Amino acid sequence: MDEIKIITLGLLIPFLGTTAGAACVFFLKNTISATTESALSGFASGIMMSASVFSLLLPAINQSDGSPFLASLGFLAGIAFLLLMDRTVPHLHSASEHTEGPHAKLKRTTMLTLAVTLHNIPEGMAVGVVFAGMTAGGVVSAAEAFALSLGIALQNFPEGAIVSLPLKSAGGSKSKAFLYGTLSGVVEPIFGALAVVLAGAFTAAMPWLLSFAAGAMVYVIVEELLPESAGGKGGDAPVIAFALGFVLMMLLDTLLG
Question: Residue 177 in contact with residue 164, Cβ under 8 Å?
């Protein structure tokens, strides 16, 4: 039972980060500036890139007796999975005016929320896999698992705000904007729990699952976050924020682990 409670807490921490960010609609009057949004996207990119390397790919290689081949296949499969999701789910990135995926008559707010929701799927999977690794003979330590969960929560905070604040500035109510921001993070504990179940049922596939989650996260970085950080005309801010996010996640993973 204690183990179940620990996993549940670990899966909920990133979702709580998104919820806290969405709650900014009750405290901030205006939307986030383009420069700030670019910096936040850079910060999120740094955290996710660092987590992909130190929390996912390196443990995957270590679990494969130092061989990178299984991790490489899992990484490419994660990229392919997010590419498929990107093509089959209608969505709109905040830095773009053109929708992606199949044509659908949905509101702009819904399309923006779907974009962030897609982004959150690999994060939930990553947290679920590392907590499954914690229970599978200590593949991942509890400290390393919680370090990843906390790192994802830190970068989810600005994401929740990025979803909710524009909805409020567009004329929506604070409560509705908060709801949309919160709902964008619901998929994280759901896919996290799914990853825990899959990893528990197929323990031998742990290296593949770890690298799969890494590939999915890197896809989000390259396809969404980096273009948003560069397109916001934030100058050097996105680069500095990326470096800070990368180092922060590296320190969390190595020092706590």
Answer: yes
